[in-house]
């Protein structure tokens, strides 16, 4: 019985009868009813069509053309009717043929001819369930065929999960989304299958299932009245199945594990091409537990749902899985690829016999066009090799195949994955291994040691010099991410020893990326000259842009980055594209285009995570955390800060731990918690100094000074502002000039001198290049004027600051600016970014403060820290339109 699905059934009926679409993908979450709709379509087709069914299985996802073989096996009797050329293609892919490996196009055309021949007498429906688990080679061919079925007597229907990526996602085939059941249909299905449920349990099941049919059928025995779902639905269903599996006898569980790790039969009878298969026996207990069904076509027992198969594998211990794989390897003694697949999974220690079997399987896969599987098997064979020579040879073969399959990044990685037989590594190999150690694992010290050792080796052969430059630039990148003074000084020693062999651009990177406080005085001129070069490669563009960021002139070159970034990503230069996107995001942050920065950050985060660039992914999260802190989204900012810090600090990635501290500083300032801001800021650098090689030290200058002023640490604030001037920061970059003079103005005792310094800070292009910093200075300047020269003089500056904060979406700062405006007598509304209603906790704290209690006393009563009380009051004041505790009583009376 199928409940509901009127729209989906109507679409399938049209699909089976109209002459339009000939291929359709059913897409939905696990258990949503894709298989039931597939069965419905098969029922519609059965009277007039020949139906061929196939099922993708995760255990076969690495086996080239396993899915296609399963789908086409029933049609092999028609091969005799094909011409010699197309028969030869099938012989190479599925048989013993030794001809040229067919392309997707040539194999796809042969498949189309076979389907057309088979559909001569009766139309043909290909019904493929769990298509996402098909091997990549099979999906490529199915996609090619599906796009070319128009006008024939063949239809193809594929069901895929929406939460599992596969090549069907980009197959460009029509799709039918399978949503959850409506509330009415969900109730109907539940009542039909479980009519005796009490009302509370029934409600709990409906709430937890969320319209998912599988959950509606399986959850009722496991849900208590009024129980809330403790875990996501897919995991809850796995718990349900897991409980059933664990209740079985050990021998039955072992038999189920063999079935779960095995594939799917291509058809009834023995299949000589793929050898004899394991068939589960003595599993009546599992069938009685509703874990198994009987396939009506073959009479074999099969799993009722893919989640059952994955649950069985998940519950098995590693030893049990290895033992099962070893037994399956014996079952497939005549099938070179499946045997090797199971041997590789069963083996832990080096074993030349297993390595040789994998190598032979890779040769078979290569001959049949399964390059991805061949590369994986050769790499595994290298891991299991007993000698360095065999390991090196197999890795070389894997790199060669990857290169011919257009897997260029993988080819470069494999070419340098291990030492040569003599134990040495070439400089080019060190570039690759150190690069991987840094970007994939964040192992900076290992990367630094590898590169330094090669650069100091007097016998190293750098060839034309390009390898030398790449090693130097990699060493500088490693040092930059480390933020470690010791590693940086070592890098400076190594690069200085190179003398004239050091590329001038590398010298720019060293001085800009390392310590602009001490080495940045002329960097911006050197960057400008380098950017003027007519022959600038994309990687030079991105590296010079990083240098431009460190001296705050990135905006000048942002248009060039925007023109280049899409080209880099589309052509596969992912790492360079990611760097460019980071720089574009930084420019958008600096120039106040924060919505654009959010979109750019999410884009690069998706790229970095999907391509395994772990360091870049956390780098992106750090920038997103900083953006959230600027916007006053403190909770989200601190979540990202914690993730970044937890990954970066144990690895010594100082570049990111400094940004994590900057997130904490910025979030605290946005909330008005100046004590917390000060503690975060001095974690980056001590007052009155700028920590060597700490790139965030000059960037947090204004934060440290402002937090110190507001917490009564006037001496530390003055020392830090003066230290910035003494270090020559205004000459390093325009932004550092802005914040240095602003910090000096904040700490000036004399009002006339403060006015002069504020004027000097606000001159130049700060309005467009650094609007947030300029608004902060205007707020501080306006606040000082309100107290020294009266409200009328302060209003213009405060209004401009409020307008900028509102436009940027800097909610915490906007609140403060609007509160100052109201205190200056300007009847301006509260910041639109915040509601003016007090929360219960804010109202309680305000009442106690109005009664004269200190922050410490309020905290003791409400079990809060004094700092948290201060943060709440900081949010309360602008909501009430006041700036001091003395005005609380009257403001609260007006509210009432």
UniProtKB/TrEMBL annotation:
Alphabetical list of Gene3D superfamilies matching this protein: Winged helix-like DNA-binding domain superfamily/Winged helix DNA-binding domain
Key words of the record: ATP-binding, DNA-binding, Nucleotide-binding
Record SMART domains: HTH_LUXR
Keyword set includes Zinc: no
A single Gene Ontology CC term: cytoplasm
Pfam families: AAA_16, GerE
One of the GO BP terms on file: regulation of DNA-templated transcription
InterPro entries linked to this entry: AAA_16 (IPR041664), P-loop_NTPase (IPR027417), Sig_transdc_resp-reg_C-effctor (IPR016032), Tscrpt_reg_LuxR_C (IPR000792), WH-like_DNA-bd_sf (IPR036388)
Keyword flag Transport: no
Gene Ontology terms, MF aspect: adenylate cyclase activity; ATP binding; DNA binding
Residue span(s) of domain HTH luxR-type: 831-896
UniProt protein name: DNA-binding CsgD family transcriptional regulator
